[in-house]
Amino acid sequence: MLTLGQLKEATCAKSAYALKFLPYVIETCDRFSINTPSRILNFLAQVGHESGGLFYTEELASGSAYEGRKDLGNTQKGDGVRFKGRGLIQITGRANYKAVSLALGTDFITNPTFLGGKNVTKCNEVQLKNAVESAGWFWNSKNLNALADQIDITKNIDTGNNLVVFKKITKTINGGYNGLPDRLNRYKSGLQYFL
C-alpha cells in the first residue's frame, strides 16, 4: 500500500497536501491498477508536475484560450472558460469532461468545479477525490500503465529506453515535453522510496 512518504517524495508535495490526497490516491491506484513500483512512481511524478506538487486542482489561466476549440468539444459559447483544465492531470474541454463524467458516474458537464476548486486548500473532499480519480481515469484511458511497465526503475531514467518511454508518457499527458526536467526530478526524488 502507498505510504505518505512515497506520495510526498514522488510528487514533491508538502506533507499537509500529500496527507489530504493520500486516501484518494490509494483508492485511485487500486481502481486503475496503478499497482507496481514503476506504475505508481511514474503516475505520481507526472501528477506532481501537473499539479505543482499536489497544490493546484484547476488551471491558473482563465480557459478563454480554449474557446471554440472543436478538437476539445468546445462548441458552445463559454465552453473554454467553463471546461478549463481541472483535476490533478488537467482534464480540459467539454468532450473530455463528458468522457470523464461517463467513466466516473458524476456529472462534470453540469458541475465542472466538482473536478477541482482552485487548489488543495480550497477543495472539499468531493473535489479532492474527483481531482485524483480523474487523473487515474486519464492515465488508464491512455493505457499509460503499459508504458510505465517498460521503465526499469533499477536503471537510470536519464538515458536509453527509460528516457524514451518517460518522454512518451510525458507527451501523452502534456501534448509535448513541457516541464520534462521537473517531471524527471520528481521521479528521481521518489525513486528510493519505490526500490
Automatic annotation (TrEMBL):
Residue ranges of every copy of the Glycoside hydrolase family 19 catalytic domain listed in the record: 45-176
Taxonomy, superkingdom: Bacteria
One record GO biological process: chitin catabolic process
Keyword annotations from UniProtKB, A to Z: Hydrolase
InterPro entries: Cell_Wall_Dynamics_Protein (IPR052354), Glyco_hydro_19_cat (IPR000726), Lysozyme-like_dom_sf (IPR023346)
GO molecular-function terms, A-Z: chitinase activity
Coiled coil regions in record: none
Pfam families referenced in this protein's UniProt entry, alphabetically: Glyco_hydro_19 (PF00182)
Protein name: Glycoside hydrolase family 19 protein
Species: Chryseobacterium cheonjiense
